[in-house]
Amino acid sequence: MQPQIPPGGRISGPRLAGLLGSWRQGGSRHGAADLAAAIELHVLDGPRPHPPPPPPPRGRAPAPGISRTLIGAALDRLRESGIVASRRGAGSWVAAPRRGSGPLVPSGDDLICLARAAPSALPGMAGVLDTARRALTEHLGEHGYYERGLLALRERIAQRYTDRGLPTSASQVMVTNGAHHAFVLVLRMLAGPGDRVLVEQPTYPNALEAIRSAHAVPVPVALDPAGARGWDIAGIEAAVRQAAPRLGYLVVDFHNPTGLRLDAEGRERLGALLARTRTPVVVDESLVELDYEGDPVDGPPPLAASAGDLAITVGSASKSHWGGLRMGWIRASEDMLGRLVSSRFAVDLGSPVFEQVVLAELLAEAGFGMLAQRREEFRARRDGLAEALSWYCPDWTWTLPPGGLSLWCRLPEPMSTRLAVAAAGHGVQIAPGSRFGAHGGLERWLRLPFAQSPDRLYEAVRRLSAAASAVRGTPAPTATEIPIA
Fold it and tell me: What is the pTM of this model?
């Protein structure tokens, strides 16, 4: 996630330019509006805990070629919306948005949040909780600390990997508090300040934030959403050779945000490359169970099957079952896992027992039947979102993903950040494309999750169409032009 501009603080010109990236979208005539929109988006992201940098010297522009006149016009817009406050002799600073000052950040039932690709709990979860509550009694006489996780749960996770073509034992599995927690544990052990971490472009924003928090440097290799395979294996090989990354982070199953899936041949080539160069890699499989073309057991084998003993696979129940469980896991070689267990003691002492019992029940045979029903439901939501976009946003393009939780949409012009700001005023919260880039950019792209109910998705697209029309200065479609689904 991009660093945010803290309310109550000032920020230097060079740092502001770095935060905003490519903010100019509409040409010289719209420069003030573009600059104001970019700053507003970063402020609305929320405060940061660190103190703000000193204010820029008087009269200095945030970047070469930006006039003081343009900055003044942008500040006027930000003052009107309450984002910036000024006082003669003291300059201007970021202010917390005023409560009740308009629809800058709609909330409550009227707000449709498409910034998270997170579904509600799996239907039937209440019955599983009752079963788990009874099963918990056999653990109440024990101490409750399991640094690797409950054996029964690890055995079921291991069996799933084995069924998918990656022979695994319970001794190769450690339970964590979600896949992101798993990645942070690996990152903490294997990478340090200044180390390079190979990532896809675009990629999962929280992974980028974790890399930056470790003071490591993300090294992006671009994906091609319209390509036959998506992954540029030759580009990855060049990046490994030139940058010598200490670690890689890849999502090859229903990639977040593009929804792409690397085929079996591509996995063999990529795995062989990583094994040959002895490059440790974290393979994030958080979305692997959301396969809309069949059971994941029948899909391509995990990347770790060809990437060697330095491949570390992380998984999660958050996307497939429910984020409220906060349950994930690491699958690695016994040697690597032993090192991870030892380093974990500095962070936490294990995962909650009850949630582990719940997940063990969900990974029983009956639980996979529940997942099959969820796949059918989400496939229908994916198709419904695509249909709504076809009517309301006909000049947007996308490739229908074979799995995952989102569409990666190409916009008709570079406007993702401006659209995110405008959409907030229409009651829709979205993450602009820049969030998914290692160094910003991606202004022609927008991720739209389809985890919510069909009627909410349809209404969200209607509102987005209105926001996009406002940004582009074109008339929005009327209700008589669009069939009611």
Answer: 0.78
